[in-house]
Amino acid sequence: MIAQSFNYEAPNTLSEAISLLQKYGDEAKILSGGHSLIPMMKLRFATPECLIDINGIPGLSHIREEGGVLKIGALTREAEVEHSDLLKKHFPIFADVTKLIADPQVRNRGTLGGNLAHGDAANDHPAVMLALNATVIATGPDGERAIPIDEFFFGFYMTALQPDEILTEIQIPIPGGRTGSAYHKLERKVGDYATAGVAVQLTLDDSGNCSAIGIGLTNVNPTPLRAVRSEAALLGKPITDASIAEAAQYAAEDCSPSSDLRGSEEYKRAMVAVLVKRMIHKAMERAGR
Amino acid sequence: MLKQITVTVNGTQHTAEVEPRLLLVHLIREVLNLTGTHIGCDTSSCGACTILLDGKSVKSCTLLAVQANGKSVTTIEGMIQDGQLHPLQEGFKENHALHCGFCTPGMILRATELLANNPNPTEEEIRWGISGNLCRCTGYNNIVKAIQYAGAKMRGEEPASTEPQFV
User: Fold this and answer.
1) Which residues on chain B are in Cβ contact (under 8 Å) with A8?
2) Total beta-carbon pairs less than 8 A apart between chain A and chain B
3) Is the Cβ of B162 closer than 8 Å to some Cβ of chain A?
């Protein structure tokens, strides 16, 4: 399969890339890892006039801690996320999630920024970023703009990014105290999109109450979904079997999965409930109860 | 609009004028006539087109040739050195790790990076490591053995016997 013809630009700086975006507007696509975009172009679902390859722009693939915030450059490859000691230390959820994204070769190319900017509710990082309360940094002609993750996903393949903006960094607050995080997705085979996926991060205070909670759901809604009622059921209280069951039930009720080859709507809701329970337990174990 | 690119393939520098939409696997197979790299699914699922790009295993059906500009590519044709099979090639041969052979170049290139990162992988690590490469003949067991064989050889150890074990 061959893509429709396009112009290819490989700028060396961010400002050049943004100028190109201004020139081409909607007709340009950013080429990052390319493992969602190139397949879509080969199928001619995507027919951009210009491809702006940002892989040669320096300063977009870091993982560093700064003032209590973890900053990940948008061009950081999934394989780098998977093996980062800094991420393993603060966020075991990244080891959970990256292992389940596609396969090793794809993870050598696919990037964290691309996974989010693609705006696909079937991708795994959106739910993780909801659970971790991340902030997306977009850079455009007027400089940087911080977008809270809850305001980032708009619809099917639609995000808050403007046509002249590039997603450049993801910022994640490093939680204190006894915090644990976990992700799992049910998949039919290695590398599949999720039948259902659940990301959880929770913090326990000294008396064992849940002082912070984030729960994100993968591929069971038109957009990546925060399980708001589930979070409310757990926040500020000791986590009990009853409150976990309540959180699981709310998540299953509040998502909106469609029946497809991966399973019926009913089955997917049931799996959301199962995964919410399991991920809360796993996150609690990692928090050290 | 054609773009001029320079790519080093198996140690030899090549310059070509290509359309931006030309896939890397087509540059390798059709422009450079290195047909050891196979096209299986053409959708980055099967791994038959796996090559090394600056030492990292990638699926060349999902990269553009222009993305390899200034980079170094290794294909199966570049594995043999001074007429000597690479330990992975030898391992696949000794362990009967191929039947039809279609997946083998991709398996070997993927295993090259796997062993470079982890010279003594467990069986589970090998199985996760080749999870992006499909084989429809062997059932994978002998491929795992072949990679273990190559790992041992590359560590300077004696590989396990490749005699069939009857139980």
Assistant:
1) 3, 20, 64, 66
2) 79
3) no
Structural domains of chain B, ranges and CATH numbers in brackets: 3-77 (3.10.20.30), 87-154 (1.10.150.120)
Rounded to a whole number of angstroms, the distance from the CA of B23 to the nearest CA of chain A is 8
Instruction: Please give the structure tokens belonging to residue A29.
Output: 């696509």
Query: So what's the pLDDT on residue B163?
Result: 76
What are residue B3's DSSP bridge partners? B18
B167 — contact with chain A (CB < 8 Å)?
no
Pairing relationship of beta strands A143-148 and A135-140 according to DSSP bridges = antiparallel
What's the pLDDT tens digit per position in B90-109? 999 999 999 999 999 999 99
Q: What number is the ipTM of this complex?
A: 0.96
Low-confidence ranges of chain A (pLDDT < 50): none
Structural domains in chain A, CATH included, are: 7-53 (3.30.43.10), 63-173 (3.30.465.10), 181-287 (3.30.390.50)
Whether residue B43 lies within 8 A of chain A, CB to CB, comes out as: yes
B57 touches chain A (CB under 8 A): yes
Contacts of A4 in chain B (CB under 8 A): 21
